[in-house]
């Protein structure tokens, strides 16, 4: 069961890497647009994170406050991606604050996972 949990952690990390990598490619590539790949990365990380929040195959208590905070940050990132995508579809540019907050919050979520015990 522990191997399966590690596989889900790996998939969760892949989701973060896809989200942050797509964001970084846009941030440092000059266009600063929201892409579908960012949405896919968020979905992968979210589904795998929810699977990890279930108490299966572990012998310790989960930190539900940490899980809740990470879920709220995930929802905010999703909202920002939705706002940016909607603006793009109307032909407007993504507000810089929205775009940069996506990357900052993605890094914050990864930092919370690693630092908060």
Structural class category: mainly alpha
What distance separates the N and C termini?
22 Å
Q: What does the main sheet amount to?
A: none
Give the count of helical stretches: 4
Oligomer: single chain
H-E order: HHHH
> How much is the average pLDDT?
94
Domain tally: 1
Total beta strand runs: 0
Low-confidence stretches: none
Report helical residue fraction: over 70%
Question: What's the Cα radius of gyration?
Answer: 15 Å
Work out the strand percent: under 5%
Q: Judging from the principal axes of the Cα atoms, what is the shape?
A: elongated
Question: Helices and strands in order, then pairings?
Answer:
Blueprint (H helix, E strand, L loop, with lengths): L1 H28 L6 H17 L11 H26 L6 H20 L2
Helix pairs in contact: 1-2, 1-4, 2-3, 3-4
Characteristics:
117 residues; mainly alpha; 0% strand; elongated
């Amino acid at each position: 069961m522990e191997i399966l949990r590690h596989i889900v952690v790996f998939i969760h990390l892949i989701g973060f890497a896809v989200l942050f990598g797509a964001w970084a490619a846009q941030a440092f590539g000059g266009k600063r647009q929201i892409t579908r790949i960012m949405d896919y990365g968020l979905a992968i990380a979210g589904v795998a994170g929810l699977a990890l929040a279930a108490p299966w195959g572990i012998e310790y208590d989960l930190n539900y406050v940490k899980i809740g905070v990470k879920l709220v940050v995930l929802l905010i990132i999703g909202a920002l991606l939705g706002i940016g995508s909607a603006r793009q579809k109307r032909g407007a540019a993504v507000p810089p604050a929205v775009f940069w907050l996506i990357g900052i919050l993605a890094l914050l979520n990864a930092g919370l996972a690693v630092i908060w015990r």
